[in-house]
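# nightly structure sweep
# worker-07 picked up a monomer target from the shared queue
# config: single-sequence mode, recycle default, output format = structure tokens
# input follows
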Amino acid sequence: MKNHDFIYIPVIEKPSDHDLEILKDSGVNLEIVTRFFERKEKEKKSLVEQLEQKLPPHLLASLPRSLDLIGDIAIVEIPPELRQHKQAIGEAILGSNKNVHTVLVKAGPVSGMYRTRGFDFIAGERKTETTHKEHGCQYLVDVAETYFSPRLSNEHKRVASAVKEGETVVDMFAGVGPFAILIAKDHDNVEVYAIDANPAAIKYLRTNVRLNRVIEKVHPTLGDAKKVIDNEISGIADRVIMNLPEKAIEFVDVACRALKTTGGIIHFYSFADASTPLEKVKLRFAATVRSSGRRVNEILNERIVRETAPHETQIVLDAKII
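# output follows
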């Protein structure tokens, strides 16, 4: 065992005076002391190690290689050939992840007006609500009632880092607040208008605003983003976040109306695939901006955020609009 400048060598019995004299004569500088060290826990077995005696060898190759961790809930996708073994897989996930208390399996795609997904419970505590920690913020979230992706963690931080002091930001599809709250936590002088049509998302957003002590800077609003912007906050924004890749193109005109007359930045999220590559997305976005009476002055950044399906990616354009 090591501790600062010393190495501790355990012995099973106290050395005799004769033994100590021999050690000292050999030039060894030592001291007999008593120290107590924390017991080192045995490392948990991997998922494959836990299941190699429970599943046929040919199925081990189909085990999920990744999972989404939201708070203490693990969300996993299980292929058809393994579904009859899902309880065993769930228990193995609990056994290999000490901070996981619940395991859910995806029961369908993200869909519907509120971007929610169905889940099947397979192991641990039967719940869908948890507290997720990210970049120093805490988010109370119900994974069955609201949309939340831990895979967007880097994107939340990237956008928050781009915001400048004194800006007014409109988050058109705010969910439980991972963009809005982090922006408010990272900046002293900002105003963030966080909109969502999902009542459950706004309920959790309001809780998270209080939980993270940003109640003076984040303003949650329940409603359709088009109506909220046109009726309440048109022309106030320096920056607009459009994290609704399935339908963001349908809201570009209203995002332009949210910006100040002098212009601003739009963070536009969409999907790209073989039929709609990134260049085609850019052209469509620019044309939609023009039809709203504005113009893309510059694409400040274009990047792949993550892979969402085979041959499909979620992309983001950071566009300066005038």
